[in-house]
Amino acid sequence: MNLKTSFLKNRIDADSPNKNIVPVTTLIDNANKLSIGGCSIEDLVLKYDSPLYILDEITLRNSCRAYKKALVKYYPGESLPIYASKANSSIFMSNLVASEGFGLDAVSEGELLTALKGGVPNDKIVFHGNNKSDKEMEFAIKNNIKVIVDNDHDLKRLEEISNSFNRDIEIMIRFTPGIECHTHEYIKTGSLDSKFGFGIESLSKLFEAIRKTKHIKLIGLHAHIGSQIFELDPHNDLGEIMVNVISQAEKFGHNIIELNVGGGLGIKYTEEDDPPSIEEWIKTVSSSIVKACNKKNLNLPILMCEPGRSIVSTAGVTIYKIGSFKEIPGIRTYLSVDGGMSDNPRPITYQSNYSACLVNNPLNNNSKNKYTVAGKHCESGDVLFKELELGDCKTGDLICVFGTGAYNNSMSSNYNRIPKPSTILVCNGEAEIIQRRESPHDLLRYDVLPDRFIKQS
Ligand SMILES: Cc1ncc(COP(=O)(O)O)c(C=O)c1O
């Protein structure tokens, strides 16, 4: 076999799916057609239409288990991995991560509700956000969900709530440790210039303010230094910084028993990407915390981490149908697909790169055409690939884009009133719907025409 699309043969690491471009169950049959989770992609599109999000259950579970296994192996204290549900939030995802023993991080009432409906125990959910509404805060407190205090505004409101109920509330605080990560600027949150969390220099004042409250119990610290990170050093440094902050908090009488190091482990989107494995990442984080705690003679805190992308990204693919072609001689050939920036806003927002292949000629055996793959939205920048190498293809052929499980569905929109695709779960040859496709009529549900306009028409 002439393997020109080399990423398809690079399925090297079933235990750390973030190191692969494709889901771990991806296969190419004798007829050179693609299948995932034992299901023919072509058959899935015949049944469920396109564009189509597909999630591979085995890849998802392998990722969750890799985190759990590494935590048991490298962290001698208690630990709790928490799924960052912003990466892909659904009742199904909540249910799956809960079944793997994960907690869940939510940043809105919608994500909190989804987690609870999916069966995540409330004591394993944490509530984040730099501008939580009163309604969201009340929802979290009523459901006994731990709030991660991001700023003075959060603290003041929690103090008022706890005083009015005359009841203690346990909190974690989020701070910015001042670590720079070499990822795209828009997805970097750990540096001092960030909208999230307390600046590290303001913590003494904060610890003193919390000490003076009647009912707020500070039990944990949180920091998240960025996303799609390939280096291990920043997380090594983070562990040490966080343990130093535990000591600092203890001087103000706070007993810190939980340390949440956020998420951020990168995944392999293209052949150039080489992220560390889940095991290497957990080993780094764990050893740095254990070492720093030993040095300071501190008890080991419960170690929490919040992976999002590295749990769900590689498990997900998006299938598009090719529509029109436009050749501009000497410049480029546009190939347009039936989705685009509404189902995947990352290329237009972050200039993100992906890998893709034809569903019915994944190994690209016959030629090396280069296409600019455009979405169908009214925006010139709605381009999914600038120069994608594909085999010979025509209108009606299917393209599979890999690594779309995270921050695609969850960041999708209805721009141009385009309905969102359905998501299909595949496992051992079975395919099940976990999110239904929207219809144009669904999009009219919340439109209202005031009575006087109806009378006029
Ligand atoms: C607070 C927090 N935790 C966890 C995550 C998940 O990060 P990732 O998907 O890179 O693992 C994010 C992502 O932005 C975040 O802001």
Number of strands: 21
Radius of gyration: 24 Å
| Share of residues in strands | 15-25%
CATH homology group of the largest domain: Alanine racemase
Q: Kindly state the percentage of residues in helix.
A: 25-40%
What's the pLDDT, averaged over the residues?
Answer: 93
Output the number of helix runs.
12
**Second-tier CATH architecture of the largest domain:** Alpha-Beta Barrel
Q: How many structural domains in the coordinates? A: 2
Task: Characterise the protein shown here.
There is one protein chain. β14 and β15 form a beta hairpin. The protein folds into 2 domains: 6-56 and 314-443, Lyase, Ornithine Decarboxylase, Chain A, domain 1; 58-312, Alanine racemase (TIM Barrel). The mean pLDDT is 93. The longest helix is centred in the middle third of the chain and has 19 residues, at 278-296. Strands 4, 14, 15, 16, 17, 18, 19, 20 and 21 form a 9-stranded mixed sheet that branches. Strands 5-6-7-8-9-11-12-13 form an 8-stranded parallel beta barrel, surrounded by 7 helices. A 3-stranded antiparallel sheet has the order 1-2-3. The chain is built from 12 helices and 21 strands. The radius of gyration is 24 Å and the shape is globular. α8 (233-250) packs parallel to α9. By secondary structure, it is of the alpha/beta class. The structure holds pyridoxal-5'-phosphate (PLP).
